[in-house]
Rho GDP-dissociation inhibitor 1
Amino acid sequence: MSLAIGERSRCSRDMLDEDEVVEEEEGEDWKDSKKLHLGPQVPLKQQLEKDKGDESLRRWKERLLGSVDLDSVGEHLEAEVKILSLSILSPGRPDIVLKLPAATKSKGPWFTLKEGSPYRLKFSFFVRNNIVSGLRYTNTVWKAGIKVDSKKEMLGTFSPQLEPYICEMHEETTPSGIFVRGSYSARSRLIDDDGNRYLEINYAFDIRKDWVLPAS
């Protein structure tokens, strides 16, 4: 549950320094002057062939692609993002590793947070086939049917590679007090500039006075 903006999200092996946090109502346009516009999506091999006449642009794209074997991925048009893990990190506590996909039909909460505790989300994922431009995380939270929080956070632009990316979101603190304890529902997504959704989960979580083990 988002309350205040702290430090920016951090992604290992990130292509571009696009980290930016924006809190706004879900459904509004994503307004980011730093957004990278790659133009119409084409296979990577075709992009490199097209840029042969621009040496600096060609070198830039090759640097972003790193050691990826273009013979195996260059003919694919659509990028693939595979989420490997999603965890909740809180200082002094074991990481809460969440099962994916979330058990949306479960009657219990997906996880429980202690009130007044700092925490951050951690994603690990593969990118394959093509460049993913402007990957961002969105999250909306409701309590008793009333929307109480909504945010969007930019992760960055990523090239396909053999190693997984690891992204940690900025640190937040759960609210505290008797009136904020209880059950919440939420929807989280990972979406790119083209509107492709690589993760969409609807789930429930609790805020309680003390920590409890995550639901099995």
Summary: Residues 42-77 form one domain. The radius of gyration is 19 Å. The chain is about 10% helix and 40% strand. Helices lie at 44-50, 55-65, 70-73.
